[in-house]
Amino acid sequence: MMALGGVLLAHDAGSSNVARRKLAYLLPNLFGPGGFVLPNAEHAAHFSNAFQSNFGPLMSSVTNQLTTVPLPSPASGFLYSFDTTLGVYTHTGQSFGPIFAERAETIGKNKFFAGVAYQHYNFDHIDGIDMKKLSAVFEHQPAANIVFQRDIITTQTQLDIQVGQTVAYFTYGLHDRVDVSVALPMVTASIEALSDAQIQRIGTGTDASVHFFDTNIGDRSRAQFSASGTAQGIGDVTVRLKATALRFKNAGVAVGFDARMPTGDEFNLLGSGTYGARPFVAISGRKGNFSPHVNFAYQWNGKSYLAGNVVTATTGNLSDQLQYAAGFDLGLTPKFTLAMDYLGVQQIQGKRVERTQFAAFNGARFDQSTVRDARVNQHALAAGFKVNPVRELLVSFNLLFALNDAGLRDRVSPLIGVAYTF
What we know:
mainly beta; Porin; 57% strand
């Protein structure tokens, strides 16, 4: 350990290994590899817990969140159909479409659509637990002296996890009923961790000579640990093919397929670390300037180190997801469209963090965070608008509101974007 102004800095187990200085290793190594090793040379005072198994799923939660973050819809706000009388393509529809969800119509043959949007997420809760108040209990490893073994270390950790995405997306109409899209995200991820640790001398009582921190100041039963890091780079690229399968006078049904590529650095939380496949169905209708729509999708994910254990370099299955959306877009004026959507995600093999209590030898109880396997259902409301200031230019603004506490959540996430159709 290294002390600086009374604050213990996280031990960097991988100082000789560039990979181990990446964000995914920051939390597992916050107190040192495998937990606390106290400086008493006469006693191997090693405290470990389920830190890896308790807080390790935060890495999986961030990864799952990256795969569930709704990308802006690559469908153009302008739709075109060929007018056989005039011999040209003309605008159809009286609204500019949804922001996150899909509608059944495609862009139109030989039309090209390009846009860029920025989203920011400041994750402040996980399963309803404040990220500033994550507790853990570290137990003494088996020792010859059973009295020593009764001491524990309690920690209270504050986490600040933020992700920003700038997504460039492009759509080209291969046919009147078929278009292809590409979404290219540039991701910035950052983590800051600050943890207060305290030795609870359940067995050794007032004897501070057995278990102590190497702080050299004040109360040696307390110490503070901190670590932080930021990473930037390309995220996971997604390629989409969408086709209008059924077309009626004022409604349609489209089927599509998203292929996600593991182009983002998973160890820096920039990507999922695995391929993904997402078949979907989009149903939409139109009555004047009102256009309702519903979407259904299944997100298949492969294996990722972040869903397993980055420290031991073992992979785990990144949770598959059921995704669904329902909403509408309403053209209030020829230049302004209101868009609203309910977005739902079910992580089929997810992890849930819960606050429980640890019972010490003397009967005292201490808060701790535990993890169990669970289906995680997340609900959100997207509310925004699209404005057409000039020609084929669209400007979008949206707020994404978390409607429940399941998973790693940001209460309100903003999006702003611009797009143009050629």
